[in-house]
Design goal:
Layout: H1 3-15, H2 21-32, E1 38-39, H3 40-46, H4 52-64, E2 68-70, E3 82-85, H5 88-112, H6 114-123, H7 137-145, E4 149-157, E5 166-173, E6 182-191, H8 200-218, E7 222-234, E8 237-248, E9 254-256, E10 260-265, E11 268-276, H9 284-302
Antiparallel strand pairs: 1-3, 2-3, 4-5, 5-6, 6-11, 7-8, 8-9, 10-11
Amino acid sequence: MTMEKKEKRYIEALQELELDEDEALIYYVLLKKGKSGTIARKLNEELLSISRERIYSILRKLIERGFVIEGPPSEDTRKPKTFIASDPSKMLNRKMTKVEEKLNRLEAVQNEVLNDLLRFYNSGYIVVYDELHDLIKPVLKALLDKNWEVTNQIIKEGVNLFGGDLYLEYQLKPPILVYEKIDTIGLILEQYDTEIGEDELLLKFFKKQLKKAIREIHAEDFKNIEIKEGSIELMDKNIQSLLIQAKEKQSGVFHEFGETAILPLNNKIIFIWEEIQHEGKINREKQKKALEIIVTQIFTAFDRE
């Protein structure tokens, strides 16, 4: 191998130490000067392709990163500074240590999260029972047993938009064959430090914030969003609800949104809504049936507290 090819290989090898080509060139030339080093002017004479300003700039960076050290100060202050290459074996060992640490982190990824990531890749993101917040587990367990899927979970602790100290939000996917027009059922649970039945102002505030959030979420795709308070009959009970209508901006078609329910229970307020497909005929009874299944689970889990 010719000297030219050898030097090219040396430079390529030094670039594996996270040096760019110019940095590797300067470090290589300093290595050739041995432990006595050299001054910047001499470097510039050997590396005419690199300006002296850039050589000084690179030397500062190499010093900061430990590749180069400054020689001992001279008694003659007029003498230029000497720059000396650091031991290349130390630089290589440092790099190998970094690589080993990165490999350890990658092994941790493989051991701790790869199975979950593969599950997301193969089946989409599904929240499994053990990942659910403890408060919602009694509500969703029966649904999961009947092939419902939880496709999203948001947990916020501390005071939030709705004024409570715990906010839970879920996206539920019902069995397609049973509820073919329902894409998703959403559920928000807000927990407070007071009984809701004793605080009508709190329920009023929750509804106000909820309407505001609905308008903000749908503002990009819909206009003329109308939200009216009403009720829906579920489990032979009149349940508070919101009736939502809006005009789709793109098509100009006026849509009625899916069924909703608002459940004030003990120190919690739960809001459920359905996201439906608007194409074709909507079966309102099936919509109500899906909502009733969830409401039943909620009453079973919380009404006896």
